[in-house]
Design brief:
Strand content: 5-15%
CATH topology of the largest domain: Rossmann fold
CATH architecture of the largest domain: 3-Layer(aba) Sandwich
CATH class of the largest domain: Alpha Beta
Number of helices: 19
Number of strands: 11
CATH superfamily of the largest domain: Alpha/Beta hydrolase fold, catalytic domain
Helix content: 25-40%
Largest sheet: 9 strands, mixed
Shape: globular
Strand order of the largest sheet: 1-2-3-5-4-6-7-10-11
Structural class: alpha/beta
Distance between the termini: 40 Å
Length: 474
Amino acid sequence: MSPSSWIAAAGALTLLVVGGSACAAAPEFKPAACVGDYSAVSQKVDCGNLIVDEARGQTRSRRISIAVAIVRASAPKAGLPPVIYLHGGPGGAAVAGLPRLLQRPAAREYVGVDQDWIFIDQRGGGLSAPSLDCPGTNLTDAGPPTDKDADGIVACLQAFKTKGVDLSRYNAVEVARDVQDLRKALRLKQIDLFGGSYGTRIEAAIQAHAPKGVRAVVQDSPWPPEADWTVGGPEAVSVSIDIVMAKCAVVAECAKRYPDLKAKLSAMAERWLAGPQTVGGKTYTADDLGGYLMDASYFNAAYLPRDLWKIIEGDVGPVAEFVGARDYYREGQFMTHLCKEELPFESRAAIATGASKDPVARLMVASMQRMHDVCKRIDVGPISPAEQKPVKTKIPTLFLAAEIDPGCPPDLTRAAAKGYKGGQVVIVTNATHGVTSRNACARKMVRAFFANPGQPVDRSCLPAADAPMTFVYD
């Protein structure tokens, strides 16, 4: 899309923003009709919008809208405060997809049972306004897959800025303050927090900057502030794939079907690094394969040996499916967070240096470096080293980490938890990113922990550390 088209799109979005005020105004919650089909949802859900100043403390600040949906507890227990759910990303969303979530049997085991659960679309994303989405561009956790995507994201953000969006106000610290404003607007004395993936980074900002009223915190697939997103990122993907391949090698059926998988994968990576691969009349790049590998090792470890074997043998269907579905982030929101609180503290050159000896890791170097290139071209305001400091808190916190997770490796959780007095760390064998949604034992732990944060969670339902992994072959 051309820059002029981005300006038009940004203008359309900013029309949704509440008009500026002559002086700093108090946050306000305005009830509104829920968006989506809740006809098959058994819980009662109330919706609305939190209206806050975009730039807190500044006169004549624009007012922005943050979408909120409150799932009322089906069997509320006295004394338990609401849980505020913080989605991942950055650049994700929660509210529009809530009807589908609430229809899943797994979600009904812990969401809106004992406590109200409050879902928000963090400022800059989802149904909130403005939503810093950049249609026509692609972006994954590995970065923009092409230079064209990177240029498009920059043009998009520049267009938002031209229309008055203050890009320095879309980051974890501001979301943390939004959560406190929501607590006040809803007149909640206490809240609990549940965050998934990058939502745990928001929790860390709340615990560091705005902890008032927070009683207990669950971090699912934790991402701590002190972690490096791009430096070491490609190697983390390769390590996760190595873990899966090692687990395949000790399962007789998997080992028989996919012999010598690690060596074959390395050889395939070298071929893709040497130049684009044309299959079935379509061309795919090393960026495409690297992005696929990161995404697949995040969520689809049980299928990974099967799909790697397909690609090795020339069937690029798994990569093609990924390429066709990688427009799932609000790209502008993603980049304002990373450019403010993550990438300024990392070295672009170090990405390549660390991955130089591993062909699988090298597949992700170029796309991760493009994130740095985007950040150099947009202005997100002053950078604070405080946003890279480990959190120190006494708020009871339960960490649920997956054994297989290229984005949020369990070693990061173990290190970060040292600053959490009394924090409980659970590493789930054979699990992948998003532990609670995939593991019934984790769901029981969440409810038990929120019911009594001072008690150790029951780990007896967890798989043993040496439990073999179950793979899908068909």
